[in-house]
Specification:
The complex is a heterodimer of chains A (209) and B (364).
Chain A lengths: L2 H14 L2 E3 L10 E4 L6 H6 L4 H5 L1 E6 H4 L2 H11 L2 E3 L11 H8 L3 E4 L17 H8 L5 E7 L1 H4 L12 E5 L6 H7 L3 H21 L2
Chain B lengths: L6 H21 L2 H27 L4 H23 L2 H22 L18 H19 L3 H22 L6 H18 L2 H8 L1 H31 L4 H6 L13 H18 L13 H29 L14 H5 L2 H16 L9
Classes of the chains: A alpha/beta (209), B mainly alpha (364).
Chain lengths: 209, 364
C-alpha cells in the first residue's frame, strides 16, 4: 500500500464518516483479510484494521478486467498497489500465482471473495479462490470481516460519496486452512468447505446486530 | 482509590482546562471563569460519586465512571475550542452539528428493512442527504459573518425547496413522503435549531455557556431526582402525595419520567439560572433581569424535558437504546446534545427579542 495516500484517505473517512470497530488493529502476523464487498471505499476502511508496518506488507487483490484501465484502476494501483487477478482465466496458467508468491513471501492479502461489489447491501456467494489460497497456506490465518453501512456511503454505480457511519465487525477468531484439510477427503473438497465456512462466518457477523 | 485517568490523560486534561482558564483570567472575563469553576466543581463532585460507587460496588458503577470520564473530555474540549478564536469556536460548533446529523442519518434504516420491517431512507435520497451536509458550512459561515436574515430563511425556504427538488429528479414516488419529511426534520433539528448555538456566541459567548450549562445540568438533575425519589416512592405506595408525584409524563415513550421530578427539576434550573444571572454581560438594552432569568430557567426546564422525550421517542421508534457509541457512558452525540436543539433557540430568541434593538428594526 502507498502508506501516506492510504493514511490520508483513512483520516478523511474517520473524520467525515466515522469507522466503528471493537479492536484497534489485527495481529501483525501475515494473514488474509476476507470481507464482503459493496463499495469502492471498502479497502480504505479495511486498511484501518492494519498497523502501519503491517500495511506496508499488505497487498490487495483486484479484478484485472476492472482495474487495468480507467481512472478507478489508476487510482487503486497508485494508492493500494493492487495485485491484478483474472476473474475468468483463459488458458492453463494459474491466476493465483502472484498471490501465492506474496503469501509465501510473508505478505498479507486483502481480498473480497464475492469477486464483485454487487447490489448495495446484498452479499453474493463467495468464489472458490479464497479456499484455494487458504488450503495452499494452511497455517495462514484468514480473518472474516463484515463491513457495515458502507453501501450507503458509496455503492456501485454511484459517484457521490455521502457521509454515513461505517462499522467493522471482525470475527472472534480467524479460520485456518489446516482445520479443513484434516477433515476433508481431498484438497479440492477442503477448499470448498473452507469457502462455505468463511461465507457463513462473514454473514453471521453481518446479522449479529 | 481508583484512578480515573492515566498520567498522560491527566496532563492533557490539565492543559484543556488551565489554558482556557488563563485566557479568561487575562481577559478579566469573570463570567466565563465562574462557568469554568462551576463545571470543574461539578466534575469533582462526580469524581467523588464515582469513587463512592466503585467502593460500594453499586450496579453499573463502571458506566458512571465512563460517563464522568467522558464529561471531563467533553467539557475540556468545549472550553478549549470556545476560549481562543472565534473561527475555531464556529468550526467546532459546525462539527458538532455535522456529527449529530450524521448520527441521525446513520440510524435510519436504508436499503434493507430494520427489525420492524421498515425502511426509512431510499437509494434515491442520497443527493438530498448530501445537500443537508453541505448546508452546514453555509449556515455556520452565515452565523460567523452575523448574517441573521439569510441564516433564518435558508432552511425553511431554500433547503425546504431543494430537498423535494432533488427527490423528484430521482423519478421515484414510492416512499417519497417519508423520505422528504425524515430528511427535512434532520436538517431542522441538527442544523437549523442547533445552529442557533453559533448565534448565541454572536450575542455573547457567555450566553452559550449559560444555555449549555443549564441544559446539561437539567439532564443530570432530572436523572438524580429520579434515582433519589424512586425508593421513597416505592416505600409509600399509599401516600397521595407520592402518587401525585409519580404521575408519568409519557409512559409509552419513557416509562420512568414522572411529573414530580420534572417540576422539581424545573425549579432547580430556575434557581441555577438565577444564580448565574449576575455574571451575564450587559446587553445593548441592559442587563438580564431577575424575572427573565427565572423565565429562561423555566423554559430550559420544559424544553429540555421535551427534547429528552423526543430523543427517547425517536430511539424507541427505531428500536435502539442509544443513538450511538462515540461517547462512552453517554451513548451517541444525539443522546448528549439532542436537548440543546430544543433549548438554545428558545434562549437565543428570547434574549435577542428583549435585549437587542436589531430585532425590532422594521424595513424592507
Amino acid at each position: 500500500m502507498n502508506l501516506p495516500a492510504v493514511r490520508t484517505i483513512e483520516l478523511f473517512l474517520i473524520f467525515f464518516f466515522g469507522i466503528r470497530k471493537r479492536i484497534r488493529h489485527l495481529p501483525d502476523d501475515p494473514c488474509i483479510v476476507a470481507a464482503n464487498h459493496n463499495s469502492s471505499l471498502d479497502t480504505y476502511v479495511l486498511a484501518s484494521l492494519l498497523s502501519p508496518s503491517h500495511r506496508a506488507r499488505t497487498r490487495v487483490l483486484a479484478a484485472k478486467d476492472t482495474f487495468k484501465q480507467g481512472f478507478a484502476g489508476w487510482f487503486a494501483r497508485k494508492t493500494l498497489n493492487v495485485v491484478l487477478v483474472e476473474r475468468k482465466p483463459a488458458g492453463h496458467h494459474d491466476p493465483l500465482l502472484e498471490p501465492r508468491q506474496l503469501l509465501a513471501g510473508g505478505f498479507s492479502l486483502i481480498l473480497y471473495p464475492e469477486g464483485t461489489r454487487g447490489e448495495p447491501g446484498r452479499m453474493e456467494h463467495f468464489k472458490r479462490g479464497v479456499g484455494v489460497l487458504a488450503t495452499a497456506f494452511p497455517d495462514t490465518p484468514v480473518w472474516p470481516v463484515f463491513i457495515r453501512g458502507v453501501e450507503r456511503c458509496l455503492a456501485r454505480s454511484e459517484y457521490l460519496a455521502v457521509p454515513f457511519e461505517i462499522g467493522l465487525e471482525i470475527g472472534a477468531a480467524p479460520l485456518y486452512g489446516r482445520d479443513f484439510l484434516a477433515n476433508a477427503t481431498d484438497v479440492r473438497e477442503a477448499s470448498k468447505q473452507f469457502t462455505e465456512a468463511l461465507e457463513t462466518a462473514v454473514r453471521t457477523l453481518g446479522h449479529d446486530h | 482509590m481508583i484512578a480515573l485517568f492515566n498520567l498522560r490523560h491527566y496532563l492533557i486534561l490539565l492543559v484543556l482546562y488551565v489554558a482556557p482558564a488563563l485566557k479568561f483570567l487575562r481577559d478579566g472575563d469573570r463570567g466565563a471563569l465562574v462557568f469554568v469553576g462551576s463545571a470543574v466543581g461539578f466534575l469533582f463532585l462526580f469524581s467523588i460519586v464515582c469513587r463512592i460507587a466503585a467502593i460500594r460496588k453499586v450496579p453499573n458503577y463502571q458506566e458512571v465512571i465512563d460517563r464522568t470520564k467522558t464529561w471531563y473530555w467533553m467539557i475540556g474540549v468545549f472550553l478549549v475550542t470556545m476560549a481562543f478564536n472565534r473561527g475555531i469556536s464556529f468550526a467546532a460548533l459546525a462539527f458538532m452539528s455535522f456529527s449529530a446529523l450524521k448520527e441521525y442519518f446513520s440510524l435510519l434504516p436504508m436499503y434493507y428493512p430494520d427489525a420492524r420491517g421498515r425502511t426509512l431512507l431510499r437509494r434515491h435520497d442520497r443527493r438530498a442527504i448530501l445537500l443537508c451536509y453541505l448546508s452546514i458550512p453555509i449556515m455556520f459561515y452565515l452565523a460567523y459573518v452575523k448574517w441573521y436574515n439569510l441564516y433564518i430563511l435558508i432552511v425553511p425556504v431554500y433547503i425546504a425547496l431543494l430537498i423535494p427538488f432533488l427527490l423528484v429528479m430521482e423519478n421515484q414516488s414510492e416512499n417519497f413522503l417519508v423520505s422528504a419529511s425524515v430528511i427535512l426534520w434532520g436538517v431542522i433539528l441538527f442544523v437549523f435549531l442547533l445552529g442557533h448555538s453559533a448565534f448565541l456566541v454572536n450575542l455573547s459567548p457567555l450566553l452559550l455557556f449559560y444555555g449549555i450549562f443549564l441544559t446539561e445540568a437539567r439532564d443530570v438533575v432530572v436523572y438524580m431526582f429520579g434515582k433519589a425519589t424512586a425508593p421513597v416512592i416505592a416505600r409509600h405506595p399509599d401516600s397521595a402525595f407520592w402518587k401525585a408525584y409519580d404521575i408519568r409524563i409519557a409512559p409509552q415513550i419513557s416509562p420512568k419520567k414522572n411529573v414530580g421530578s420534572a417540576l422539581l427539576t424545573i425549579a432547580t434550573i430556575m434557581l441555577m439560572s438565577l444564580a448565574y444571572q449576575p455574571f451575564l454581560p450587559a446587553f445593548p438594552l441592559g442587563r438580564m433581569s431577575v424575572g427573565v432569568s427565572l423565565l429562561i430557567g423555566a423554559l430550559v426546564g420544559v424544553m429540555g424535558m421535551v427534547g429528552d422525550l423526543v430523543g427517547s421517542a425517536f430511539k424507541r421508534d427505531l428500536g435502539v437504546k442509544d443513538s450511538g457509541t462515540v461517547l462512552p457512558g453517554h451513548g451517541g452525540v444525539i443522546d448528549r446534545i439532542g436537548s440543546l436543539c430544543f433549548t438554545l433557540p428558545v434562549i437565543f430568541h428570547l434574549c435577542y427579542f428583549l435585549y437587542f434593538p436589531a430585532f425590532h428594526q422594521r424595513g424592507l
